[in-house]
Amino acid sequence: MRIAVVATCLADSLFPDVLKATVGLLERLGHTVVFPRAQVCCGQMHVNTGYLKEALPVVRHHVETFEAAEFDVAVAPSGSCVGSIRHQQAMVARRGGDTALAERATALAGRTYELSELLVDVLGVTDVGAYFPHRVTYHPTCHSLRMLRVGDKPLQLLRAVGGMDLVELPAADQCCGFGGTFSLKNPDVSTAMLADKMGNVLATKAEMCSAGDASCLMHIGGGLSRLKTGVRTVHLAQILASTTEKVYA
Amino acid sequence: MTTFLGVPIRRSRDAESPIRGSETFPQAAKRAVDDTRLRRNLGRATATIRGKRQAVVDELPDWEALRDSGSAIKARVMAELPALLEQLEANVTARGGVVHWAADAEEANRIITGIVKSKEVDEVVKVKSMATQEIGLNEYLEEHGIAAVETDLAELIVQLGHDKPSHILVPAIHRGRAEVREIFLNEMTGVAVGLTDDPRELAMAARTHLRRKFLSAKVAISGTNFAIADTGTLSVVESEGNGRMCLTLPETLITVMGIEKILPTFSDLEVFMQLLPRSSTGERMNPYTSLWTGVTPGDGPQEFHLVLLDNGRTNALADEVGRAALHCIRCSACLNVCPVYERAGGHAYGSVYPGPIGAVLTPQLTGIHGHDDVNSTLPYASSLCGACFDACPVKIDIPSLLVELRGRAVDSDRGHGLPTGWDGAMKAAAWVMSDEKRFAAAQKGLAAGRLIARKGQITNLPFPMSAWTGSRNIAAPPRQTSRQWFAETHGDSEGSA
Ligand code: SF4
Fold first, then answer.
1. How many CB pairs lie under 8 A apart between chains A and B?
2. What share of chain B is helix, strand, coil (3-state, %, to 5)?
3. B381 in A contact zone (CB under 8 Å)
4. Taking a C-beta distance cutoff of 8 angstroms, is the pair A203, A139 a contact?
5. Which residues of chain A make contact with B486, given a CB cutoff of 8 A?
6. pTM (whole model) above 0.90
């Protein structure tokens, strides 16, 4: 299949390892990966901060960029960006009076998937042949869980990873407190939520905390690093891409 | 101490209103987050009730269908509200009740106080009611020399503690039992000297206190959970039985209801009697459900008044967001699952309607007047995690409503006064993020971040990012962005071979 990656502005700029792993994994599974060069951002940050008008050109740019590219399906290693593409872009376009753009956004969203959805639902694999010899716990992230309803797809994939000790995270479905600009607008509440999330991660005695969203990992990882816990964060894609020959994390 | 960008300055506007706070959400929440006793009380209580709710919801194979029914009935109520209210009025009147229409809090308070005064009493008993809290009835009655005695245990704790409720259903959720004991010892007459903090002992003390009140009260005031248009029936759903005493013992009963609390037919009640107890207290069925229709000679109150309260509701009804928010049946499930509520507590929302639904309802009922209005911070009091939407028995999509309200708050500020820091940042970001060349240029600027990083981590950023680095590190920007890596490894073409 010809698969386009939605790099997401965050992983593109700050976490290239996530994209390298996503591309590496898909190519290992025999697919062709394209990177529509003009892509930037899905518009989520603007939408969630209330700047819906400002989100409009960002959304338009996303839609035009991916419409111009040739691919079968698109994938983002981020539940929240896919959530935004699926549930917010058309709304932004409609609110901005551009119904044609809303329809185009909806059509594009119809072939855009989050990584675990793409693997399990579209490509039909749960065992991607990965090898990752670590004790890992998994935070499901709110938008994957509730906006996309990915269910246990990430866990199905993780359970098939060789050498890995997957430990259950207590209160896994609770938000880590990132929430995009929520972490800046309500830093005290955000930090309190993060503290509880970190407490649960530490209780698992895992070496790493994983998730399908670089943004949540940036938050959780930022806290774990500040407290010098020695616990790392790792994106789902990095685990799935790792094999005995090549390690992505 | 953290600083944050764009948070409005404090301004008191109707500072006394029970549905409008006097400080911003982040300010009020900070105090709550720092209060370790409060954090513990809230965390424990919400975790318990979340667990109970989930267990009884999981028992029902048709839960999703029930939610759909509840949502559909509510949609019908909103569409036919004027006709349903007239039908209710006609049926209540036909059964010997008296119906009053109150446009706002002031009018409702005046009507109720007038009725109480005509009975020449200086004390009334009350069943816990959001509507009367919303209009500040107790305070109004007090000004007119009438004492209103709350008979719901949690409400009584709040009242005796000279406190404000912090939860829709469990107003004293923020209090531990040692605190309750202290309040009772200080404020109740005739409590046993050796009162301990054993929950049973505390409940017995409250019971003795209340029994005296019930037996002497001539007038009772209640809210209602549901009013049924086609029969004129009112209902109160409760756990302690104190409500039932209020509803049956006094000679006169006054019920105050927000006009959205109506159901078209008696059979609609069936849906809500399954949805409400499971969502609110995590019980299959609540212990006491009282239903009454007008007056019945020789049985129960011989005079019944129903006050229909608007207080901003018809305005809300005319609005997409407001209309959706009016579907709320005040079960409090969204509060109990909300991670923000769990840390910030109910008082941080500055309104008798706290939590996720409060963040929607309060600005709807009282308006947002510019970015320096404390109400403008409420739609941001959520990480948009979506737990509230999942829990809501009538499927109110609270996260989407919050996003829409954020959009309106930003829009209403456009062209007024100085732009906030957020305006500048968001406009610049939109400019950068709608063009790949501008974005690539901005990414180059990020490289500077590596200079201030230590061992790959940045621990201290200037304002406004100091809000982030107050408690979290951030990884140093990489040497190469993802797009640079892809171009380098996959050549100039957009795809791999
Ligand atoms: S919004 Fe929904 S969950 Fe929240 S109190 Fe109202 S009915 Fe219950």
1. 237
2. 50, 10, 35
3. yes
4. no
5. 19, 23, 35
6. yes
Is the Cα torsion angle B257, B258, B259, B264 positive or negative in sign?
Answer: negative
Give SS3 for B80. coil
Segment 467-486 of chain B within 8 Å of chain A by CB:
467-468, 470-475, 477-478, 480-486
Residue B277, helix vs strand vs coil: helix
Confidence of residue A153 (pLDDT cuts 50, 70, 90): very high
Beginning with the edge strand found earlier in the chain, give each strand of the sheet holding B147-150 in spatial order. Answer: B98-102, B303-309, B252-258, B219-222, B123-126, B147-150
* Alpha carbons B253 and B295: distance in angstroms, whole number: 10
B64 and chain A in contact, CB less than 8 A: no
Pairing type for strands B474-475 and B457-458 reads antiparallel
- The Å distance, Cα B443 to ligand 1 centre, comes to 43
> B434 and chain A: CB distance < 8 Å anywhere?
yes
Calculate the dihedral angle through the C-alpha atoms of B100, B102, B107, B111, rounding to the nearest 10 degrees.
Answer: 20
* B340 to chain A: closest CA residue: A189
Query: Ligand 1 centre and the CA of B263: distance in Å?
Result: 16
Residues 6+ apart with CB under 8 A from A74: A3, A4, A5, A6, A66, A108, A111, A112, A113
Residues of B whose CB is below 8 A from A46:
426, 429-430, 433
- What's the burial of A119, exposed, middle or buried (CB within 10 Å: 0-12/13-18/19+)? buried
B433 touches chain A (CB under 8 A): yes
Alpha helices in B119-235 (DSSP H): 130-134, 137-143, 153-160, 177-187, 199-216
For A:89-108, CB contacts with B below 8 A are 91, 95
- What element of type H or E holds B56? helix B36-58
Residue of A nearest to B450 (CA): A14
Instruction: Flag if A184 and B464 touch (Cβ within 8 Å).
Output: yes
Residues B384 and A48 sit within 8 Å (Cβ to Cβ)? yes
Average pLDDT, chain A: 97
| A142 vs B: CB within 8 A | yes
With a 6 Å cutoff on the Cβ, whether B359 touches ligand 1 is no
Helices (H), chain A: 9-14, 16-28, 44-49, 52-68, 79-87, 89-95, 99-109, 115-117, 142, 153-159, 182-185, 187-203, 214-226, 236-241
pLDDT in tens, B199-240: 898 888 888 888 888 889 999 999 999 999 999 999 999 988
SS3 at position B95:
coil
Distance B247 CA to ligand 1 centre (A): 25
Residue A215 and residue A41 in contact, taking contact as beta carbons nearer than 8 Å: no
Report the C-alpha gap between B418 and B421 in whole angstroms.
9
B11 Ramachandran zone, left/alpha/beta (phi>0; psi -120 to 50): beta
How far apart CA B112 and CA B143 sit, in angstroms, is 13
Q: Distance between CA atoms of A180 and B113, rounded to whole angstroms? A: 48
- Please give the order of strands across the beta sheet that includes A165-167: A165-167, A135-138, A208-211, A232-235
Q: For A168-199, how does the pLDDT look when each residue is reduced to its tens digit (9 = 90+)?
A: 999 999 999 999 999 999 999 999 999 999 99
Best residue of A185, A200, A216, A227 to probe chain B, by most B CBs closer than 10 Å? A185
Residues of chain B with Cβ-Cβ distance to A191 below 8 Å are: 33, 470-472
Reported ipTM: the value is 0.95
